[in-house]
Input
Amino acid sequence: MARNAHPELTQERIIKAATGLFTSRGYDKTSMQDIIDATGGLSKGAVYHHFQSKEDLFDAVADRLMRTMSETTNKTRPRTEQGTALEQLQSLFSPGRARKRLEAAELMFRKFNPKANPKMIGMEFTAMVDERDDFVDLLKQGNQDGSLHVDHVEQAAEILRLLANMWLLPFFRRGTQAELRTRTACFFTIMQSLGIPLQDQGFSDSLASFGTDTKGNNKAKTESEGGI
Output
């Protein structure tokens, strides 16, 4: 068999097909065979050469759609030109940037049933912890510039990532507008106790707009929290 001279193009083709299916049908109702068929001619072997399972492919798609969720700084400028570490962290929770991240997450997880996919939840948990380095660096910078006072930097970085990306966002665990506002208040209180004095400058309003009592979200609650 001839070697694929452009494996990155094949991988892109697979991810594009999977993205369309995951966001339209949902993870649970999409099979690997569906994805293979949607590539328009790739063989089963070609797809599995790049992605060994549906979970691996979902992770690649989610990473692409939601990379703004895990960004910590504007990479186009040196950190020293982006303000204090606290200012950089605070910008992640500004209404504009928050809505962008929330919309990306909603697109990927609106039809995802966490109770039916414990393996996927485990993968997401592990990825959040493993990818803490940017936040570790930022918290260390904050201790140096005086904007933060974090005693346990590595652990605080993990808590920040896990809470901000898995617990705070209403896609692994839905909530009403009131519940999401309370969740936000709790999150900022926890951050304060860790020496990261973030402020709610409109983030709770953005988050609440994704509550299950908001028009159009009741159906999403049924799909994401339904029984196995």
Summary: Confidence is low (pLDDT under 50) at residues 72-77, 218-228. Residues 182 and 200 are 12 Å apart (CA to CA). Residues 7-24 form the longest helix (18 residues). The chain has 13 helices and no strands.
